[in-house]
Structure formats: structure tokens, C-alpha cells
Fold this protein.
Amino acid sequence: MEYEVVIGLETHAELATVTKLFCGCSTRFGSEPNTQVCPVCLGMPGVLPVMNRKAFEYALKSAIALNCKICEFTNFDRKSYYYPDLPKNYQISQNYHNLGIDGYMDISVQGRGNRVRIHNVHLEEEAGKLIHPEEAGADYSLVDFNRAGIPLLEIVSYPDMRNVTEVESYMQTLRKILLYTEVSDCKMQEGSLRFEASISLRKKGADTLGNRVEIKNLNSMKSVLKAIDYEAKRQANSLDRGEPIDRETRLWDEVNEKSARMRSKEEAQDYRYFPEPDLLPVVIGGKWIDAVKMTMPELPLARKQRFMEVFKLSDYDTGQLVEEKILADFFEDCIKIVDRPKAFCNWITNDLLREVNERKLDIHHLPVRPKQMAALVEIIEKGTISSTIAKEVFSEMIQTGKDPQAIIEEKKLAQISDEGLIEALIVKIISGNPAVIEDYKKGKKNALTFLVGLVMKETKGKANPKMVNELLQKKIDV
Amino acid sequence: MRLFENTAFQIKEKILSREICPVELTEHFIERIKNIDPHVQSFLSIHEAEALKKAAQIQKKIENAEDVGFLAGIPIAIKDNICTKGLHTTCASKILKNFIPPYDAFVIKRLKERDAIILGKTNLDEFAMGSSTENSAYNITRNPWNLDYVPGGSSGGSAAAVAAGMSVMALGSDTGGSVRQPAALCGVVGVKPTYGRVSRFGLIAFGSSLDQIGTFTRDVKDAALLLQAIAGHDSYDSTSMPISVPDYLSEIDAGVCGLRIGIPKEYFAAGLNEDVQNALKSALSMYEQFGAKVIDISLPHTEYAVAVYYIVANAEASSNLARYDGVRYGYRTSKSNGIVDMYCRTRSEGFGNEVKRRIMLGNYALSSGYYDAYYLKASKVRNLIKKDFDLAFQNIDCIVCPTSPVPGFKIGERAKNPLEMYLSDIYTIPANLAGIPGISLPCGFSKEGLPIGMQILGKHFEEKKLLQIAYAFERETDFHGKKPILKFSSAQRG
């Protein structure tokens, strides 16, 4: 039977604050276990949470960026469950009055626009991390609380996606928005961006939803997509056999690429939500929302459209540019120095990206500055170097961080545009290759290209190719 | 008058005039605790070395004519659910038997800054859950007025310590009457400030929306002095209010002439002990003599207060006590099979029956499918109770009523019947639900010779007025000046 796959995503993003949500501990990643903890984030007796204003504003900014209705009166709730990485055995989260509700995000799938509705956006605290010893037969686990209490943004979508292409676009677009608004570093490998999927199947054309299955432990976007594929097939097979789908939570096994039941609906936890009495409700006035809106950067979709309109760049090119905010920012900085959008776009999306990927550089620490990039483009425009030499110069810039002018001088790479010099070379080449000249005169036009190549070789590529072409033609035709 | 019977003001004067020195005074109280406390059992731990060290520092400051804090050298006892850095803080629970907090509660920091001498930590009902101090995992504290009687609770250790002259002042906590009720039963002055007046940072939570740290003193002026020391905003407690603290002593003798005192009929209904009723009646007629106007009022939702309280407080408690799981600190079972078994054994072995009862009640009230019927409904009724007070206070300056329906009860008398025990707080609970301040002060004695407490309730943050009203009564009476005669028999030893 043919089924429609219905997919919703829950996203957790660690907010990029310097300190934790309810205490002053650092949020730095990768420190020695339990070195960034205090009585508050360890949930010791008698301690109280105090809201991190920055974290709250980041959450507010995200909710606005995701077109949510902002809850005028928002408060926090305790979500109770026992787990050793949860210090208080309840998580301060939001349930009854989420910060943002009923938003949406526009995604683009194969060039077509698509809208995914956002159910809610809310703020909560991160849990710690269990470390299971590797030794065989160990009867203990360790807990690292460095992560406990880091502000966490949860974004819950409606089940508006129908295939993995849409899911991928949703994840990429959301990641871009969070990066553009600078609320999260979205480093999936450090766990600061995580996804959980819920999947259900229904007969094509049916308008009621099937029982949904939640999939946890998805460590990369790739595993999200793989897990959805797996789950859709698993459910389809079950339905084909006439077996009902249980509402359950499953864990994705990355190594074996399959999922297994974690708990059934009957075992579902009762979180016993109730309003957090240790925090006051937050009233979000229009003025505050306006102030946050003022700090809102241009979001990726709007920026892409502007790049297409103002700089007359293609859909593909602009897509590549806005993919990483840092690249789009770099592009705009270059444009401000020299108005050559197409040239910069090519340099950035081809050469710069290639170098970054090949050298495995951190995109947030680009090895060239916009000023240097602009200088290189200017030098090419002036004809000082050819585009072939330019690639060499650029590679050198990446490696050494030097200015293009300095590299050209150092390596004597400046283009030879001295007519006398080139003419002398041409005379030498012509006299040394009479057979080729014969071929040319017989009508073999590409013989000329061969001769140009010889001149270029002789000058190590520095001769102005346009001049070589013209002069050579003139000499032979005489 | 014997030294241990002095008020904080009297001691303060003697220290500053160098009539006594802080070290001698501290030694005197430590000695007294060692002699008396085996019979009363107020203290769970005595901080002799730390107290003497602090006393020596203050003494040195005084000798060098340096500035000292306004509680310089005054001995104080602390309920053992308030965190003291480096010193055991047990909540009278087995589950925190070896817990030593690495931080001071806000109020402890304040007391230290003001140079008070912390003598030790006092007994309570486990996690402040009870009205008799019988629910302690360690001791049963006795009422100094009659050792067969309970001191009230949950701050029974603090109340008894002040009543028996083992400390000049004490701190307690009041979630449903846990300062005012033991103050009444032990014949001392107890103040529960407005919710948000004193920081809860470092107070081990029971019912977070109800808990408030309060004071025990020998008289009203001492209460004003101690409240002055601990009141004020704390950036580590979001629910503490960032508003200024008035000078509680400056107009304490302003009197009550022209003030309007409300008498809620619901607080003088059936079940009120005759001696308590008579003591209150005579107190009210005294107030009229002082020029106050006594007005009958009604707080119509009073009858729901106890029910609402036991849903809200227990719901919050069930969540607040979830952290005692044996993972990071406190008691952990000696053997277990897996994490869930470890949780179950640790908590089964670590908590006492009353605490378990309340955790179960609280979890039930918050469970999916019951939340609306219990917690949410209770929150709504709580608002009605609050509104009762708001409405009443439009026409009156304060409310006067009994603190406890009975002058006291014997050890074991109510321990078997939780419901009966819960009704001990019938007159104190509404103030916690509404967040308003209350004070209990001695206003008479029962036929058996047990002290009777009068409760005065006021508007939010009007502690100053409450203290004035209380003082107007106290300065014309001598109930607070009466001291218990401790009668030990060998049977009561140990």
C-alpha cells in the first residue's frame, strides 16, 4: 500500500551565553568534568535559580525569528523525572505558558517554498552527562555536571513534513536562523544542536494521523534522515502485515543503523508539571519585543533575496553565500571595498570554500581578510596578474596570511605586459617552430593556441595572455 | 535576673558597656545548653569552637574600640534546615545526616556580618513537616514549660531553646505556622515575615511558595532587632522583593490609638480552647483600652485553607525533596541493584514516615489527570483566600486571632493521627497562603500553666506596624516576662 509519511521535529539548541541559565558557572565546552559547577547547578539543598537575562532574550529573539506569537505572560514549570544527570530530579522548563507559540518557518525544497508551522519555542535547562566506564564489568557510572544548567532552547514543529528532503531543509534552515541570530553556535559534534523526530504513517489521502513514534539519540543530521527512512519502512512493513503501530519512543543505533524500543506509551513518564515557585513569571511588553526586534539581523531568506536583487547573482550562488553567515558577511565586507559582486562571489564560493575544506579550517576563523580579498580582485582587474597566477597567489595568501601585493612582489609574479619583451619572445618561438607555422597557414587554427602555450610556458605563465594572442596573430598573419 | 534570661537589648548594652565580655557570655550559654539540653533536646549540634572563636574576635574588636555589628556578641540558635557553611545541616532527617553545606544561607551571612554568635543548630520536624517536632529523625524536643508536652513545630527546637534560656534568639522557618505555633506553645515571640521579605537562599525548601524564615525572641523589641538584621533583598532569591527595609525600632512605641483591629469570626469558632478564647478576649479588651477599635470581620474562605495548604505545600515538597536521591550528597543505601533500586532504597531508608506521606500526597496531586482537580483547584482557592485578606485589610490595620487552637498537647497525643496534627495549624496556615506577615506573642496562660499565644496578622510588608501593635500590648503586660521553671525527673533524662 502507498503511505504518506508524516514527520515532526523537536530541536534542542544550547544557547550561546557565557554563563549558565540559573547561576554564574561557565558554559565552556570540553573542560575537565565537574569543574564548571556550583551549589545551584548541582541542585544542592536550599539553593535557588536566578534567571539569566541574556538567555531569556536569546530565547525571545529565536521565537521572534521563528514568527511565533510571544506569550505576554510567560512562566516556568518543573518537569519531574528521575535521572542521575538531572541534579534536582526535575528540569526547569516551560509547559503551561511557552515563551513563543504558533510560529512558522519557510523552507525551500528543490527551489520551491514550503512552510513548516512551529508549535512552540521555549526555554529550559540542560542536564549533565553520564560517563559509562569502558572497563568490562564496571558496576558504576560517573556524572559530569559541567553541562547541567546550560540554557537550552526547545523548538517543536508541527508534523508538517512529508519526506526527508523537507526534513533536511528544515534542519538546515533552522540551523541557519539560529546562527544568523547568533543565539547558538549550533555545533552538532558538541551536542549544542540536537534533533528528535516523530514519525507516523497514514494511507495516501487520509486526513487523520496515525500513531506516532518518537526517535531519540540522533547525533547528526545524517542520522536523523537515516532514522526517518528506517522508521518509515519499519512502519510500512508493519502496516502491510496488518500490525498496528504502537505509540512508543525508540532509540536510534548509529552503528547498526536501526532503532529499538526505549519505552512504550504505557511506560511514558508522568512529568507532573507544575509552575516553578522559585522563579517569578515574566511579563513581556511590546517595548521589550520591539527592542529585541531592533537587534534582529537580516535572516538568511531575506538576505538571499536581497543578494539576488541587488547584486544580480544567481539563485545557486546566493544560496551558497548565505549558507554560512560568516561567508555572507565576508562577501558584504568585500563589496564595500570594491564593487565586484560576481568576482567576489566566485572567489568565495569556489576558491575560498575549497581551500577551507581542503585544509580543514574552521570557517569561523577565515584565513583571509576582506581587505586582502578585495586587493586581489583589484590586482586582477588592473591586469597585473592573470587569473591563473591569481589562484596561486590566493593559495599563498591562505597559507601565509600575507597581502596579495607582497606575495606578487616576493615571487615576482607580476604579469608581463611589456610589448617589446613579448614580441622578442614571439619571434624566438616562431623561428624555432616552422612546422607549426606551416600547419597554421594550412588552416589548422589551433596551432595558434599551441604557440600561445609555448609563450606562456616560457614566461612561467606571467605573460599577459591577451597581448600574447594579439601579437602572435599579427606576426604570423604578416 | 539571671544572665541567660536577658533580652538581646539587655545583653547588647552589657557587652558594649563591657559589663560582660562576649567570650564569657558564650561560655555561659554553652554551659547552660550542656546542663539543660539533655532534658529539653533543642539542639542537634552545638558549635562550641566556632562560637567561642567568633566571640573572641568580637571581644578583640570591642577592646580595640573598633566598630561592631548591631548583634555583636548576641547568642543565636539556628533551625537545622538553614544552611551553615562547613557545619552539619540535617533537616532532622537521616537522608542529610552527614550533609555539610559549602555555603551559608543569606540570613547566616547577615548574622555573621552583624557579629551574632551562632551557638548551634536546633531540632525540627523532619524537613519542617509537622507541628510538634516529634517527626525529627533524631530527638523529641520537649516544651520547657512542661516536659511532657510538645514545644510545637516544626521549629520546636528553636522555640524551646529561647524559652529555656539556652539562646537569646533563634531563627526558624514558617511554611504553615512553624514559627508562630511553637512560639505560642513555648511562650516566646515569633515573627513570620511577609513572603519575599527575607531571602530563602540557603533555607532548605519545603513548600517554596510558602516558606519564610522567621524569628524567635524573648520580646517584641528583640524581634524587631533580629528582623532588621535578616530582612532585605537578595539577588540570589528571585522571590525576595527589591524594596527597602524600614527601621523597625524607630517608632515601635507608637501605640495603637485609632487603629482598627479586625476579629475574624471564623477564627473564634467551635473547637477553640476555652482558655485560649478567654486570653484573646481579655487581650482585645486591653487593645480597646489603649484606644484601638475592634471590628468584627469575616474571612469566608478560611475553612478551605488547611485543605488547600496540604495540596500546595505537599506538591511543592514532593518536587523539592526529589533531589535527595543518594547520587551527589547525603545518605545512600549500602547495597542496591541498579539505579532505580538505589533510588528506592535510599529514599525508603532515608526519609521518615511523615515525609514519605507528604511526598506521596504531593505526587498524587500533581499526577496527570489529577492536576486540574487538585493542584490547579487548590491554587484557585488559594487566590480566594488571598482576596479575603485583601478585602478585609481595606477597612482594618491588622487582624488579631489565636495562634493555636489549644495551649498545647502532650508528646504522643497527636502523633498517631496526622489529620488531627494538621489541624494544629488551622489559624496560621492562611497567612502563608496569602503571603502576609504574622507575629505570635504571649498573651496568657492556660489552667495547666501553659503559655497562650496571640497572633497578629498584617498587610504585605507591614511588619513595622505589626511590631508596633504587638509592642503596645507587651509593654502593658508581663506574660513575656514569665519564665518556665524547668522540672526534670530522672525518667525524663536522656
